[in-house]
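re: that chain from earlier
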Amino acid sequence: MTKTAKKIKLILSGKIPLSLLIIMFVGIIYSTTAYAQACCSGGVPLGGSLGLGAADSKSMQVLFTYDYNAINDLVHISNRLDDDTRSRTTQSGIVELNYGINQRFSITTVLPFIRQTRSINTYDDSKDFIAVQGLGDAVFLVKYRLVSPDILRPFQWVIGAGPKFPTGKTDFTNLQGFALAADMQPGSGSFDGLAWSYMQRDRLLSPNLGISSVAVYRYSGTNNNYNEVQTYRFGNEFQLSLGLNYDLFVGLPVTMFLFTRYRHQTADLIDGNVFPSSGGQWIYAIPGLNIQFLNGLSLRLSSEWPIYRALVGTQLTTGVKFSAALSVTFPSRENKILVQKH
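^ sequence. v structure.
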């Protein structure tokens, strides 16, 4: 058992009154010259940034998310190597807007801002450090509520689909004027297609226990202007998150949750050929909690720990990730009146 797995076992053996149900998938890996890293197009964590379900009719949901992704594990296939000569970080500030057209249809826009850093220790004890930042690739989804929850059946299912636009910059260079690798750019330079699904079931065995899942599939397009003369295509990505949540009241309504995420990504392609050391599978454990402060205002805190990795070749990949998300809901005028009357 790895040290990370032991840490997760200790988390699960604490006072959290939950059991573990979960497995999921999505992989996103992008490469540097010798290694690749686990992240989404240009560093955007798509799975984490598409967490809202369907908004109620004529209401607006806004989700502000901050992700800190420490990419410092050098892994060969499934074995972590004892090498700390290089590290990466991806910090993402993401705004997700979710508007309900009616009780069935809603639309979602995701706008990310990305900051990436890379540090390499050289042989003469100096450090090669570089940082880039800028707007990432925007996402637009149309969502449809297939199943609506009610008193007798506390289950909902929402699906969605839409494009990812190449709004992020892809031509950052180093101090010598050479273009940075594709995974160090805030954007991907390609139009992609996304399919999305969200399911939630409350009152599972207990009035306080629920289960939910989020699935995202991304079909990647091609950046036809990579290094001005080449083409680059990130691998297709599928992600499935499945987890349990338990409601408590400790002065404020608090929901504890535990998810697992299975991630899978196909290899990247450069000029139609497979890019070395790209692609693989990951499983992460994601414990966290959600605090409801007021009607329509909540804070979600979570961390993400790798418990299984099966990569192609040798890659620099996520060691740990921390997230904080603030959710604000602006109800429709009709709902405001109903709340005021009660």
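The chain is about 5% helix and 55% strand.
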